[in-house]
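for the recovery benchmark. tokens below, seq after
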């Protein structure tokens, strides 16, 4: 009896042990677990994710608009034709009943006034390449996924692709089908809201509007599978929503597409939760000191993120500016009315709304003003390595080799004429500094989170300018200016993608957070040089910040402070 009891207890313990062991890998492989989201940082994580999606949607829509403006003549769409991009985070339930957060990307199209212009499929046609809107839809989808959402369309993710396609009400007798999109037999679909089975074969051809709409959907699927890199590494399920309108007209012959990335944010949630616990994010838990204690400081923030195609956006520039403003307000104690933010500014915006604002203030306070100017955006240097800031209003159609392009050619060089045009419509850092030459202040500090060597924050080429072999010249700046630069003019300034900031901005804010703003410029620069170069080198993109000081400050800038 004792042996039986012991044996029974042994089996029970073994069973419990196996249950625990088997549960462990499930927990490790289950990043969607609510445990990852129900902690004290749940709302902060969701807020950050929503903000990120809103920013992505804005950039995707701007690039779509720019793409439509720059389409080749033969592919032009009617002026009132509009593409709409919707990006959102949606709660859903997995097949096993567990909750999941999905990324939903929807690309639709409409036109309010067709007149005699046909943007959509010709009558009775199903070929993707014969529809200007279908081709534009495919290009916009590719850019939206590969350029703006590649981290969410990650390897192994399950993606549902819903393609909506329609026909007008014209009766069909028979349309020849050349088998361009394969042979299909009883594929599941929906037609006019009802579940159906659709077939398509070259032998039978297309005999009704349901099959015609299905063929148009398959054309979109064919383009996506062959051209969108993000979908080549995910597990994809295609669904078809087909329609036939009662009316006749080109506005009833169109396609749209919706992408659902299941559990798209699982890994991000785990990572963000750990980083919040370790206080690695600078966007949260910003030290809030006594307000308005730094009443003699005036701050101008320029955050240029959005540029017209083929120029890429400057990743995270708007977030840079927004969080820098919060640190000035909360940690440095700058009064709210003393801070001005210019998002996606033009040179005229900077001159009239920024510099003039600062100059008027310095006159009003009789020079008792400490001026701080922050810039995040694209930069470049000319043939002699003279640095320039590139503003969001730059008209890319003024550069001939960019006209009609959606992406820059990484191997192409601007001609001398194109370079002159670029320079004439940009602002040199020398000129920006010179605008303060006759302005009385107690000090002027520039923080420039931009690269000047023709490379964007991602490390991809921005554009190429033929440069001389002459030695790089220094900036001509007034004697009391101090400039924190993300890198030298012939080096790259990168984005710290995981933190959604430029490297310089992230570690600048991290040091302000650590010291609660009580840091000298010398201490700050030492920390920036150490931390930026170390972290960027770990990521395989070494970046070294640079300090530039005017004549009077060369021996004393180390002791300067923000407050």
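predicted aa per position
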């Amino acid at each position: 009896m004792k042996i039986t009891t012991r044996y029974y207890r042994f089996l029970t313990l073994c069973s419990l042990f196996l249950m625990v062991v088997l549960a462990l890998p499930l927990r490790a492989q289950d990043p969607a677990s609510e445990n990852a989201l129900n902690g004290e940082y749940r709302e902060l994580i969701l807020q950050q994710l929503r903000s990120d999606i809103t920013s992505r949607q804005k950039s995707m829509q701007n690039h779509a608009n720019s793409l439509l403006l720059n389409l080749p003549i033969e592919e032009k769409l009617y002026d009132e034709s509009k593409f709409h991009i919707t990006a959102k985070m949606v709660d859903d339930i997995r097949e096993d009943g567990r909750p999941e957060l999905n990324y939903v990307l929807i690309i639709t199209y409409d036109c309010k006034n067709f007149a005699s212009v046909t943007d959509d499929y010709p009558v009775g046609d199903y070929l993707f390449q014969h529809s200007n809107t279908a081709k534009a839809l495919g290009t916009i989808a590719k850019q939206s996924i590969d350029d703006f959402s590649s981290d969410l369309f990650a390897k192994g993710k399950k993606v549902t692709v819903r393609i909506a396609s329609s026909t007008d009400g014209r009766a069909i007798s028979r349309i020849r089908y050349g088998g361009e999109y394969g042979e299909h037999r009883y594929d599941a679909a929906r037609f006019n809201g009802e579940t159906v089975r659709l077939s398509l074969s070259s032998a039978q051809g297309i005999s009704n509007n349901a099959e015609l709409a299905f063929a148009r959907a398959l054309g979109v699927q064919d383009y996506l599978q062959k051209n969108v890199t993000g979908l080549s590494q995910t597990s994809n399920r295609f669904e078809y929503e087909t329609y036939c309108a009662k009316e006749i007209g080109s506005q009833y012959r169109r396609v749209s597409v919706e992408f659902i990335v299941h559990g798209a944010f699982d890994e991000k949630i785990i990572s963000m939760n750990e980083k919040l616990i370790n206080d690695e994010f600078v966007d949260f838990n910003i030290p809030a000191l006594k307000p308005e204690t730094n009443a003699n400081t005036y701050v101008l923030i320029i955050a240029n993120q959005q540029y017209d195609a083929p120029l890429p956006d400057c990743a995270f520039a708007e977030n840079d500016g927004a969080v820098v403003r919060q640190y000035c307000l909360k940690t440095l104690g700058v009064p709210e009315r003393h801070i001005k933010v210019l998002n996606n500014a033009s040179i005229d915006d900077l001159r009239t709304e920024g510099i003039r604002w600062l100059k008027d203030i310095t006159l009003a306070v009789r020079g008792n003003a400490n001026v701080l100017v922050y810039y995040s955006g694209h930069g470049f240097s000319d043939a002699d390595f003279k640095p320039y800031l590139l503003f969001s209003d730059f008209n890319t159609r003024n550069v001939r080799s960019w006209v009609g392009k959606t992406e820059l050619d990484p191997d192409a060089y601007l001609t001398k004429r194109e370079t002159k045009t670029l320079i004439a419509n940009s602002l040199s850092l020398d000129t920006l500094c010179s605008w303060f030459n006759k302005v009385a202040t107690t000090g002027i500090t520039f923080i420039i989170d931009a690269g000047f060597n023709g490379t964007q924050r991602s490390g991809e080429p921005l554009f190429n300018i033929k440069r001389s072999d002459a030695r790089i010249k220094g900036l001509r700046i007034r004697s009391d200016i101090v400039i924190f630069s993300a890198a030298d003019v012939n080096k790259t300034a990168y984005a710290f993608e995981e933190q959604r900031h430029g490297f310089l901005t992230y570690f600048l804010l991290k040091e302000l957070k650590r010291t609660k703003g009580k840091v000298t410029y010398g201490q700050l620069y030492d920390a920036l040089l150490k931390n930026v170069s170390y972290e960027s080198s770990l990521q395989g993109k070494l970046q070294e910040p640079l300090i530039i000081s005017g004549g009077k400050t060369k021996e004393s800038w180390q002791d300067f402070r923000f407050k």
